[in-house]
Design brief:
Chain A is mainly alpha-helical and 257 residues long. Chain A is built from twelve helices and no strands. Chain B has three domains: 21-163, Fumarate Reductase Iron-sulfur Protein, Chain B, domain 2; 169-331, no CATH class; 335-460, 3-Layer(aba) Sandwich (Rossmann fold). Helix content of chain B is 50%, strand content 5%. The chains are: A mainly alpha (257), B mainly alpha (463). The interface between A and B is large, with 60 and 77 residues.
């Protein structure tokens, strides 16, 4: 196989980075005219940090809305984070990860197999649970759009192809490592011959391109930007300024209609 | 509360009467829908997207998980799928996608994008005026997506092409021309105050004043104007409180309304109505500005006033205060002689007005007051109080007769929670809740009274 796959991956990664940068910059640039914090809200910045951490790490609001739904939602996101970490540790910096854990090559392989496999299955199961919730719940089905299924479908296929490689005996892991490190060093090498590997990477390309232009953009830390959650509840202690309306300084304006 | 089965179109026919030229023109809104309404609406949309991060972000990041779906009282009570907050927001979001996002411009319907048509505008007018901007959904959203921000934007877009409800526009016009939502002129205001002073005299034998436009008073009290006409016990409660506390106070005929229906129409009207309070406080040279029993009034004052029309540094206490904060503080200090026996025979529960609980964080002071003045105080079931309170069903400018069907559906979760307490008196510091809930009680066959918090305090004050 040639170099088209790594080249495509470069294009996808560039789209992802530029797209996300553009989206985040737009959010950051857009002013917040009024204090709209949801109360009771924290009075201090430390309190805000805590509130955001509880939301982002624990999905606190979702937990209070629907515990049964919280389970697959939280485990799905957790497993994606762990899978990402696993890819970094297993493919990108296996030597460092191995040294840090104090394991032999063999033990490290076993760990990758067991932990990676378990997390892969967890991701698959929780993604399927989310899909079935959408399909079977009367209200979730009513609010689901094509793009909701498309996003979930992309993720499911990516997870499934990854799992397939993890659980198939003949997969050439060292070659996959070479491919990844070569790609990262801008010395791309051809990928392993397994078609499942190409499929997995292609799906990742699709995700990278799709994320910035869809609801999946929320992985850019959307909660951090959310004024109802990231503001302090202190409108009477500190004056909040609306950057596009500073007329109030001009005290003698008529208020006749 | 258990979510209902979906009943598409259940509330599709419930629409607010439209404001006409006589109301729209004085507020600078187009008297008729202009021929280029779509372009104008989209250009307003674009402006709002550049001005409000909340709008842009909340249109971008919703994942349609549906955590909010079961939390809206209008959906719970009526089952119309467009009253699920996520679906309500989609009405605006689909147009946002079509005109303002890459995916929507490229992939159209596949990306969930839709043109702004006559039909969509009609959906907007229907369902964005079946949202009370109560923010209950936002409490349960993992991103804090606030449907009130989306509803407010949709209403502002509609207003700029002359599409707005008669009720809301009329109230804003009265507030700006006369000084209060009911359109009570100065002479009638003074008369009513005198009438209530006589009532107080008969009840207590004392000269308890309800001062009007008294320059140099310590406190300017801005009540909802309904307190002077329909909720007179609340007004007398304020008067007895200030009398007992020995605080000099006044009402103002220039700013005789705490409520701010500008909040339900657009930013500029919100600011202009709010401005009257600040001007009046300055003119009357008072030391403190105190807001009476009205939910969204307290949001507009507590959260927005300093930004919109501040700084308030001419006041000795350079920030608005809520009457319940004042009263609770004085009770804590032992500054009031209270007798709970005055409210014996009442089983009282407290209804958190949505704006006090979710937008201004005022939940404990009213309870402190109630515990101090009634013997039988009960809470409504967990999950329906404080920031998880249900809206009464008429906030956000929905207290219009023609919206009765939606109002009663929206009131159902609140009424059920009330029923569960077995109480016979619901106390709440909000004029809109006080207007809506007696109607809802009658509708659902509940035998109970609705009272203000200051009413019950007033009754228990020993002079």
């Amino acid at each position: 196989m040639g170099l088209w796959l790594p080249v495509l991956l470069y294009l996808a990664a560039a789209t992802f980075l530029l797209g996300m940068g553009w989206r985040l910059a737009t959010w950051l640039r857009t002013p917040v005219p009024l204090k709209i914090v949801l109360t009771p809200g924290p009075k201090s910045s430390a309190g805000v940090a805590r509130r955001l951490a509880e939301e982002m790490l624990g999905f606190r609001s979702l937990f209070s809305a629907d515990r049964l739904f919280w389970i697959p939602a939280w485990f799905f996101h957790l497993s994606l984070v762990l899978l990402l970490a696993g890819h970094v540790g297993g493919l990108l910096i296996p030597q460092c990860a191995q040294a840090a854990l104090g394991l032999t090559e063999n033990q490290f392989e076993r760990l990758a197999q067991v932990a990676g496999g378990a997390i892969g299955l967890l991701a698959l199961a929780s993604a399927l649970a989310l899909l079935f919730r959408r399909l079977l719940g009367e209200r979730p089905r009513a609010i689901s759009t094509f793009s909701d299924y498309f996003a979930l479908g992309l993720l499911l296929l990516t997870i499934a192809t990854g799992n397939q490689m993890r659980f198939s005996s003949g997969f050439d892991l060292p070659h996959a490592r070479l491919f990844v490190s070569g790609w990262l060093a801008f010395h791309p090498v051809p990928p392993p011959a397994a078609p499942m590997f190409a499929a997995h990477v292609l799906l990742i390309c699709a995700l990278l391109i799709y994320i910035p232009f869809s609801k999946l953009v929320h992985l850019g830390g959307a909660t951090l930007f959310s004024p109802t959650l990231n503001q302090r509840n202190d409108p009477r202690e500190r004056r909040h300024i609306n950057p596009w309306d500073t007329r109030s300084a001009n005290a003698h304006e008529s208020s006749a209609p | 509360m258990k979510a209902p089965h979906l009943n598409p179109g259940a509330s599709a026919g419930v629409k607010a009467h439209r404001a006409k030229k006589d109301l729209l023109a004085p507020l600078g809104l187009p008297a008729e829908r202009p021929a280029d309404w779509r372009e104008r609406a989209l250009s307003k949309f674009d402006e709002l997207l550049r001005q409000r991060r909340s709008l842009r972000l909340y249109l971008d990041i919703c994942v349609r998980c549906g955590a909010c779906a079961d939390q809206c009282q209008f959906f719970l009570g009526g089952g119309d799928p467009n009253n699920m907050p996520v679906a309500r927001a989609e009405l605006l979001r689909k147009v946002y996608r079509r005109y303002f996002t890459t995916a929507g411009k490229l992939a159209g319907r596949l990306a969930g994008a839709e043109e702004l048509t006559e039909g969509v505008l009609d959906q907007w007018y229907t369902y964005f005026y079946q949202c009370s901007e109560c923010r209950r959904c936002a409490v349960f959203c993992p991103f804090g997506v606030d449907t009130a921000e989306i509803t407010a934007a949709a209403r502002e877009i509609m207003a700029c092409i002359g599409v707005a409800p008669k009720y809301v526009v009329e109230v804003v016009k009265k507030a700006r021309e006369v000084g209060n939502n009911l359109g009570i002129p100065e002479a009638a205001w003074r008369d009513s105050c005198q009438f209530l002073e006589q009532e107080l005299k008969e009840e207590t034998g004392k000269d308890i004043k309800i001062p009007v436009n008294e320059s140099g008073a310590e406190v300017l009290l801005v009540p909802p104007s309904a307190d002077l006409f329909s909720n007179t016990d609340t007004m007398m409660g304020y008067a007895k409180f200030f009398h007992a506390a020995g605080l000099s106070w006044t009402t103002s005929t220039y700013a005789s309304e705490a409520g701010n229906f500008g909040l339900f129409l657009n930013y500029e009207q919100l600011r202009q109505v709010n401005r009257r309070l600040v001007e009046s406080a300055r003119q009357l040279r008072v030391k403190r500005l105190v807001i009476g029993e009205c939910g969204h009034a307290w949001r507009a004052a507590q959260a927005f006033m300093d930004t919109l029309n501040g700084p308030l540094d001419f006041l000795e206490a350079p920030r608005p205060e809520h009457i319940c904060e004042l009263a609770a503080r004085l009770i804590r200090q032992g500054g009031l002689k209270l007798d709970k026996a005055a409210n014996d025979g009442l089983a009282v529960t407290y209804h958190d007005p949505c704006n006090l609980a979710r937008a201004a964080g005022l939940t404990e002071e009213p309870r402190e007051i109630l515990r101090a003045v009634v013997r039988d105080f009960r809470e409504m079931p967990a999950g329906t109080t404080r920031e998880k309170t249900f809206c009464c069903g008429a906030g956000g400018g929905l207290l219009a007769d023609e919206l009765m069907d939606a109002r009663m559906k929206g009131a159902q979760p609140r009424v059920e929670a009330f029923r569960a307490t077995g109480a016979d008196c619901l106390a709440t510091p909000c004029a809109i809740c006080k207007a809506q809930l007696p109607v809802a009680f009658e509708h659902y066959g509940v035998q109970a009274t609705v009272s203000g918090v200051m009413d019950l305090l007033g009754k228990s004050i020993q002079l």
